[in-house]
């Protein structure tokens, strides 16, 4: 699965967000908890202050009623002595300095005395006539609503208490206190800036308020608050003030007068710390995240540049150039840069070593090629130079045989001929090897019957095998193969020859096996086998397992070398399986062919050309020995022979004789011009295409091509009388 990729900038942005966002959230959470407890403390403070203020108000009212009680208990009061009571009242008012006056009212609400006036002075009716009636009715102390004092003209409240005469409430004694006294009480609470405080009586009238009292004092509190007061003694509620400011209010209702003290904190103040902290955290968080992102952007830019730098260095390394990583100050990237430099140094040293190895290999190959070339040149030269004398030796030996008599002489002659045959065989094999090495042999591929080829080779060795007491078995091969008929036969001959040579008893078998588009031709024997350590080396030139004395009769050590070369040339893999003492199996894998095989014509038997009338041969060779040898053998076959050591001499002699030769034999390499030219000149002279045979010691492909182009036979020296006879019979056959 392909992994999606993201730039370093994205990763760093993510990293910065992953670290800063939780931090900001945590800070927010902690701040929230802190402001929460701050608010809780504020709330507690609010409630405590409300209690304290309520106590203070309670104490004041209590104080006023205590003065009244004391006044009501005096003898003058109890005795109905109103003047005495008045004088007491004037004195006792000083005990309640915040009170405006003490008045005595009768049941109708008329003022009987007022400490603000002399006793007996005319007094207006009380501003609170109902109050006196209620006091006398209930016989209990009462707190009035707010009223405007009839004498003082101040916003006032009063505490009224019945004065008993003979156990019956007869008058109502009042302490009148300006409401601003309660305001002062509230002020004395030293409430924090912005806080509200108010006193509300049982009727829900606002008796006092610390802020803008003139707007609310004497009026009813809000309906919502009054409703709450009707239900509860104390509590904390969220309720707007009379002027509409949202407040968190704490209130306490104090018996016996049910005066409620309320303290409220405007919501804005109550929530302010939380809002401020949260705003701070929010702004700080945004700043932190922004800073993180900016840093990430800056750093990713730098990192991207640095990484691009090493990437470029690596790419340079890939192109084989020297990397130039910049020093970035980031350790890992710098390490990478150094590693690239090291890799470059290592590569260069490897390159240098490889170049040196390559040069050494090229030198070695050149040397080997040179050596191989000089070997080939040497072989070519040696075989050419050896062939000339060998050629004449063989021809003379052949001629000599017809002249010698006596068993001993014939015996010696036989040995001489065997020696010459062996020498020729060696030269032929060397020639084959050098031609194969020089790459001058071009296989002529065709489809043909493997059976015919196998049978022919088998038949050639049957006699030799039987002479050794071996059975030579040729199994039926009915496949068509694609190969070079002559070269494949050569390979198979070499294998069969070895099988027969290295088997003393038992069977030599030639068989075929079709296998994956190929036909394996198997040569199996029950001979001495090959020790495993030699198996890979038998294909080398002159490697023989057990012939240290190099007995010629045990082979030359070139057979398998030729097989290996032919195997490569034809692309026919060869294999060997062998066990010392048990036998060997060699195989050649030949590609299967497709066309039905044509039967191969059997080779002409070696027949000495019949001596016929007027058989006339021209022989041209600059080597007089060869010339003499060829003349001797041709004459023994009944030919009239004209010899020449050059083309000119031959033309000259023929022109003189006026006769037309039946065959021209010419050495290829002549002093002036080649054998081909010689034959062509003689043909020109006679005006007919007389059959020509080129004799050569050369190993190169040029001669073969030249001969083929001019319809000439090419015979490599040393030519045996048998080979010569075959060619001559072929020629006469075509002419007859
Ligand atoms: P040679 O002329 O010696 O046979 P070859 O190149 O044909 O040269 O073979 C090389 C060597 O391989 C032989 O000398 C022989 O030791 C071994 N060899 C080849 N064929 C056989 C075989 N069929 N059985 C046993 N040994 C063999």
Topology:
Blueprint: H1 8-72, H2 75-78, H3 82-93, E1 101-105, E2 111-114, H4 129-138, E3 142-143, E4 147-148, E5 155-165, E6 168-178, H5 179-187, E7 196-200, E8 206-209, H6 213-216, H7 223-231, E9 234-240, E10 246-254, E11 259-266, H8 267-318, H9 331-401, H10 407-438, E12 445-449, H11 450-467, E13 471-474, E14 480-484, H12 485-501, E15 507-515, E16 518-525, H13 559-570, E17 574-579, E18 583-591, E19 616-620, H14 624-636, E20 640-644, H15 647-657, E21 663-667, H16 675-686, E22 692-696, H17 701-709, E23 713-716, H18 721-735
Parallel strand pairs: 13-15, 19-20, 19-21, 21-22, 22-23
Antiparallel strand pairs: 1-2, 1-6, 3-5, 4-5, 5-6, 7-8, 7-11, 9-10, 10-11, 12-14, 15-16, 16-18, 17-18
Helix pairs in contact: 1-8, 8-9, 9-10, 9-14, 10-13, 11-12, 12-13, 15-16
The chain binds adenosine-5'-diphosphate.
The site of adenosine-5'-diphosphate has 22 residues, from helix 12 and helix 13.
Helix content: 40-55%
The distinct ligands, each listed once, are: adenosine-5'-diphosphate
pLDDT under 50 segments (min length 5)?
599-607
**Head-to-tail CA distance between termini:** 85 Å
- Percent of residues in β-strands: 15-25%
> If you average the pLDDT, what whole number results?
85
Question: What does the largest sheet look like?
Answer: 6 strands, antiparallel
What would the principal axes of the Cα set say about the shape? rod-shaped
* Category by helix and strand content: alpha+beta
Rg, Å, rounded: 72 Å
Number of helices: 18
The number of distinct β-strands equals: 23
